[in-house]
Amino acid sequence: MPVITTIDDLKRIHERRVPRMFFDYAESGSWTEQTFRENTTDFERIRLRQRVAVDMTGRSTAARMIGQEVTMPVALAPVGLTGMQHADGEIKAARAAGEFGVPFTLSTMSINSIEEVAEATDRPFWFQLYTMKDTDYTGRLIERARAAGCSALVITLDLQILGQRHKDLKNGLSAPPKLTPATIANLMTKWAWGIGMLGARRRNFGNIVGHVQGVSDASQLGVWTAEQFDPSLDWTKVEKLMERWGGKVILKGILDPEDARMAASLGADAIVVSNHGGRQLDGALSSIRMLPSILDAVGDKVEVHLDSGIRSGQDVLKALAMGAAGTYVGRAYVYGLGAMGQAGVTRALEVIHRELDITMALCGERNVGDLGRHNLLIPEDFEGRWQD
Length: 388
Prior knowledge:
The chain has helices spanning 7-17, 20-26, 34-45, 82-85, 89-100, 114-120, 135-147, 166-171, 181-187, 191-198, 218-228, 235-245, 257-265, 287-298, 313-321, 331-340, 342-362, and strands at residues 47-48, 63-65, 68-70, 74-76, 105-106, 126-129, 152-156, 249-254, 270-273, 303-306, 326-329, 376-377. By secondary structure, it is of the alpha/beta class.
């Protein structure tokens, strides 16, 4: 068993173990991948202020996200196809998150269904909703999440039209994988993954197959999905979805102060500053660079979370110190899942938690709630100077 000390350690094992199309699905952005890269490199531009001779005993990373107590202000972000990174991936990730004391968010495009995850776990999870043209299906999806006891609805706003990701097109991404000569050759080198998948509960999209008229297998699913993301989604429709849910709502995909103000005016419990991990609008600014202006726009009117680019506990600390009330990790936990299953997700959370705790102490703080800009050194031009 290798010694795991960083998220990159898990990423290297993930790449060796998982078929190329699914590793590339996780490790890719749209078009030139500029935004995908800068989501992480922009965190490196922010430096930390070391403080000494401060009592560092009795530290706590405990916090709340939308009123829910968490071991640290980190949630597992919604990630599609998680169940193709490892057999029963969504179930294993949800169990790891629940045991660690952080929220898990199930994607609409998950392999394990809402019902399967609920049956296999003993803690409520959040459900992420993509709005589809098929309004009857969207409505039933909301009711299924309610029946499963999901404690929050995360409505994704930045995928009305699917951004182009070159690797997915070149790999012929599908669940289960299409058996082309290239795919077969790659799968033959991933025998441990294949043996695990033989025992998986399912290998297609559990929230869709069997729940949509005319979609009973993977061959029909691709056509339906490509045509179904709703390009007409607007704030009026978002408000109606919130009303239909009636519980706690998180609006994900906010990257502009105007949109943040609109989301806050609808009464969302939280917004997520996110560019979909650099997978949608390439050329957009990183989430961490947009965070200050969005915080300035909404003040204390809504809880502000941050997603995209977090790979360490230090990244978490920087986002919290800049004003975020919570953070999300996607790729970081997927690396762990692909590498080692549920134990890998737990290890990813342990790595992030340890980095957050030690860095917080060396910055002279004992509680994550006390973090602030006084803990950071931020370049004067960090947010950028742009012409009107």
